[in-house]
Amino acid sequence: MNRRFTAIVVGLLALTLCAGTAWAADLYVPSPYATIQLAVDAAASSGDVIHVAAGTYREQIKIDGKSLDLVGAGIASTIVEAVDTGSRTTYSITKWTSTSEVIDPCIGIVGPGTVNISGLTVDGRDLGPDHFYGIYFFDTSGSVTGCRIEDIEYPGAPGAQKVVSLVATQSAAVASYTIDFSDNVIPNFQKGGILVMGPDFTFTVDDNDITDAPSTAIAGNGIQLSYGATGTTSGNVVQGVGYSGTDWAGTGILLFESGSVSMDGDEVYNCEGA
Asked: Staple partner for 134: which of 95, 165, 207, 247, CB 3.0–4.6 Å?
């Protein structure tokens, strides 16, 4: 075969392959994207990485059907604050139990996809109301690592049950999900610090530092692993969870109708129940 002809064919093949391939991109906030949501909306390829510089970003973020990494500059540097109650958007999900819920998360992730979040603080500013969440995964795999999630509370109704800092759950769709919640700090919460629930979830929950204070209004759970979810926990430290009522108990780590769970080296201090 003529060498020149061969080179042309190889070149055309390379161009064809490149044209059919979507390459992951790096997107930067606040420049050129002024907000995190604008960068999320612009992310077009699986594996895109959104780098969020130091600063305070008062916005609500929704990641819908995308696979990406959201990377902050560190929990002391990149802070995502909840927007005022009247400015937030809620949306409806239907869980695998066929029960519907309208959720109001600071960062909401709705599948399918894989989303990894690291190196930032989510500050809920104690803005409630019920169904208020810090980071909420629904039908999505991924991770939250090296983050701080604080003030996800509803002071106007301290007994509200659907106010949780970090959640992963699912619909009835036939799928499997993996979630890694590790190396996070949750210094206060209302009903729960970490909640993973659903029969198709496999979790890793390691080395989180979760602290609360005894409550007269609600029986909180530092970590709750429930309803068929399976996985491992290791090295978590949970302290101060308690409830003065007699009908329920506040727990450091609660396994409620979970699947198989392996636990190693978790520490629970000054909690009403283990």
From this structure: 165
